[in-house]
Amino acid sequence: MTIANAVERTAKYLRRNLRKTYRAPPAASRSGPDVVRLAVAPGVAPSGKPPVRIFLGTEPAQYRAERVFVWSVETARDPSRVYEIHLMKDLEGFRRRWWTTGFTNYRLGVPHFAGGGGRAIYNDVDQIYLSDPAELFDLGMGGHGFLAIAAERRSGTPFDSSVMLIDCARMAAVWTLAEAQTARKSALLNKAAANPGLWGRLAPEWNARDAEYAAGRSKLLHYTRLRTQPWQPFPDLYVYRRTPEGEVWHALERAADAAGYQVRVTPPAEAA
Fold first, then answer.
1. pTM to 2 decimals?
2. Where residue 115 sits, what CATH number does that domain have?
3. Which domain holds residue 227?
């Protein structure tokens, strides 16, 4: 092979793969997250416990995953308790040019959008709950600023930030809105990792990734492999294949379809 041919093949490879890894984000249109509020079920006595606050990193192309995520909370939740799902999507002020998803840095804005106090769960949209999110929300934090599972070895940080239980008062000074909007995610995660005791370990069943799923044990299933995500969000970029754990997601979608379920964003007056 000549040098010219090698250069051309390399150029074709880079052009093809850069198209796969970068999608220009849509114009931001929201000053803050929309809220889906799941009230105490009719005829059920309220528990008196605080609302379970979930902040979901999502984007318009993930509409099917977003619906099934919310449905998974609806079916797993405690009917005596209020749940608030904050849809972090197309938020203004964030520099998204080099994000790997349409919601990469939104997780770092959770302390701000949660009002700088109380607890909050962060979830990526490519996940479903198999157990009540309140179990995660109510966990003892042992004085840590956030809980997350340990990361895989190739990760640049010791923890995986795709599921986090966050003490928003503790983390508000570590992850400011201004930094979340402009800095690299890796830099802000490493900033937290460098603070001894800030990160606490979350049990792995709260973030079972793909084939890690174990029926009856996993409390949250996370579809990390882009080519096996059951809802196939980007068919122009990937050739998808089915997996056994993908059938769990399909079963939830079929149940949502049978119930005629639609995600209803709560008007601000009702969400307050």
1. 0.89
2. 3.90.550.10
3. 24-271
3-state secondary structure the chain: CCHHHHHHHHHHHHHHHHHHHCCCCCCCCECCCEEEEECCCCCCCCCCCCCEEEEEECCHHHHHHHHHHHHHHHHHCCCCCCEEEEEECCECCCCCCCCCCCCCCHHHHHHHHCCCCCEEEEEECCEEECCCHHHHHCCCCCCCCEEECECCCCCCCCECCCEEEEEHHHHCCCCCHHHHHHCCHHHHHHHHHCCCCCEEECCHHHHEEHHHCCCCCCCEEECCCHHHCCCCCCCCCCCCCCCCCHHHHHHHHHHHHHCCCCCCCCCHHHHC
pLDDT in tens, 227-257: 999 999 999 999 999 999 999 999 999 999 9
State how many domains the chain has.
1
Question: Residue 17: pLDDT above 70?
Answer: no
